[in-house]
Design brief:
Blueprint (H helix, E strand, L loop, with lengths): L1 H6 L1 E5 L2 E6 L6 E5 L2 E4 L4 H14 L20 E3 L8 E4 L2 H6 L1 H10 L12 H11 L4 E4 L3
Antiparallel strand pairs: 1-4, 2-3, 2-7, 5-6
Helix pairs in contact: 4-5
């Protein structure tokens, strides 16, 4: 969060969630939260900046996430301006978001009424549907 605070303005964050990865043979726990911020970077420059922050925090691996990593920053959506009603310049595929419930909990906490361009329901309702499918997502703290 300190690195994000130095790079971006108007930062907000969700509560902290814990999810489990059972795919690698041993149980790994991941902490997940969503962060919102303002910036004037293009999509490609923003991705480069997030990758730089990952490297500064000790992430030097690429490929599969079924291993222990210090940090993973994912850009879920990019809006043209600070309004949730503004034009969506980039957004992860909705079907991918549905398959990876660790995005939905933090996003729904931060922006419960936001509707993905390919969805018919807001993130709050999406989370309710996902929880039935993926009970491993658990809220653990609103302070960290």
């Amino acid at each position: 969060m300190q690195k994000l605070n130095r790079e971006f303005t108007c930062i907000s964050r969700s509560v902290l969630y814990e999810s489990h990865d059972l795919s690698g043979g041993k149980e790994l726990k991941y902490w997940n939260f969503a962060v919102s911020f303002h910036c004037f970077l293009s999509y490609s420059n923003l991705i480069a900046k997030l990758k730089h922050i990952e490297r500064c925090c000790g992430r030097h691996q690429s490929g599969s996430l079924s291993h222990e990593i210090p940090i993973d920053l994912d850009l879920v959506f990019l809006l043209a301006d600070s309004s949730l009603d503004s034009k969506v310049e980039y957004c992860l595929d909705y079907s991918f978001i549905l398959r990876t419930s660790y995005f939905i909990g933090p996003l729904a906490n931060l922006y419960p009424s936001w509707i993905h361009p390919d969805a018919q329901i807001d993130l709050s309702m999406t989370l309710k549907k996902i929880k039935k499918l993926s009970p491993r997502l658990q809220e653990i703290s609103d302070v960290f």
